[in-house]
Amino acid sequence: MSSVVESVDVAVPVRTAYDQWTQFEEFPRFMEGVKRIEQTSDTMTHWEVELAGVKREFDAQITEQIPDERVAWTSTGGTKHNGMVTFQRLDDGHTRVTTRVEVDPEGIIERVGDKVGLLKVRVKGDLTRFKEFIEARGTETGAWRGEVNRPAP
């Protein structure tokens, strides 16, 4: 399994950054390769992605969500994928967004992409586009302020 950690500082309050991140169906606007996300319940999403010409679909479950702090997820079928995004208040108008993503590459194309660091480049680019997206808007497109408690071990 490949793991990447990347951060970006955005010039919006932590609430704005967090609220925008809860709008999963907006991810295709700033995440390369994400074609569509459908939120099917408070804790389930269905993803359609295309990476290096390879199309994949999978479901992901939100395993933890704490407003203005973090969102964690894991895939429930198909591509093995999990991660967490955290939001750190830097001051009233700035937030550090840190993403940790783990993916189990499938097939030769994904393994080669993994070896050359494609996941790191992709995550860094997605965060840069998130920064551009939210700073240009200055406000979130929506919000979900509910909590999802981490499952007991």
Average pLDDT metric: 89
CATH architectural category of the domain at 2-22 and 62-137: 2-Layer Sandwich
Give the helix proportion (percent range): 10-25%
Task: Measure the end-to-end span.
Answer: 21 Å
Helix-strand pattern:
EHEEEEEEHH
Rg result: 15 Å
Q: Runs with pLDDT <50, length 5+?
A: none
CATH superfamily of the domain at 2-22 and 62-137: START domain
Overview in brief:
By secondary structure, the chain is α+β, with helices and mostly antiparallel strands. The protein has three helices and seven strands, in the order E-H-E-E-E-E-E-E-H-H.
Characterize the structure shown.
This protein is α+β, with helices and mostly antiparallel strands and about 150 residues long. The chain has a domain at about 1-20 and about 60-135: Alpha-D-Glucose-1,6-Bisphosphate, Chain A, domain 4 (2-Layer Sandwich), CATH 3.30.530. It contains three helices and seven strands, in the order βαββββββαα. A seven-stranded antiparallel β-sheet has the order 1-7-6-5-4-3-2. The radius of gyration is 15 Å and the shape is globular. The mean pLDDT is about 90.
Keywords:
globular; seven-stranded antiparallel β-sheet; Alpha-D-Glucose-1,6-Bisphosphate, Chain A, domain 4; alpha+beta; 41% strand
List the helices and strands and how they pair.
Blueprint: E1 2-10, H1 14-21, E2 34-39, E3 44-51, E4 54-66, E5 70-75, E6 81-91, E7 94-103, H2 107-115, H3 118-137
Antiparallel strand pairs: 1-7, 2-3, 3-4, 4-5, 5-6, 6-7
